[in-house]
Amino acid sequence: xxxxxxxxxxxxxxxxxxxxxxxxxxxxxxxxxxxxxxxxxxxxxxxxxxxxxxxxxxxxxxxxxxxxxxxxxxxxxxxxxxxxxxxxxxxxxxxxxxxxxxxxxxxxxxxxxxxxxxxxxxxxxxxxxxxxxxxxxxxxxxxxxxxxxxxxxxxxxxxxxxxxxxxxxxxxxxxx
Length: 176
Prior knowledge:
Layout: H1 7-26, H2 32-55, H3 61-85, H4 90-114, H5 123-140, H6 146-174
């Protein structure tokens, strides 16, 4: 056994820790610089864990399960931080939270009901996650004209949501 097989899961656990730190920072005044640093660390670990697991051929069911819990938590907590600490419109936060939470709950329900983890991703979903992280980044770093990209995220988010629902239905039917 080499250390390589533990690095991807370690990065996922690290992102879980980053998520907990972001929860703490929500309640801390003057925490923007720390939140920016931890958000960037979480983004880097999100990109690296799966990439390294595939590159080194050490993908595991444990890693997939960890990621299926940590990724939505990281995204939701980052969004909550942006909602509480930046100038984003409240309805945008509730819209995004509704999409992410319902997708995550549907995924968990289908996985539980079929007794098999749903771990399919499409390019549409990957781009949706990318746009979400870009929007969070833009609001955390107060990038000018961020509201213009916000509408792209809102519309694209709905398309991703519908596509993800379609994928869940297909997965459920295949397992019957």
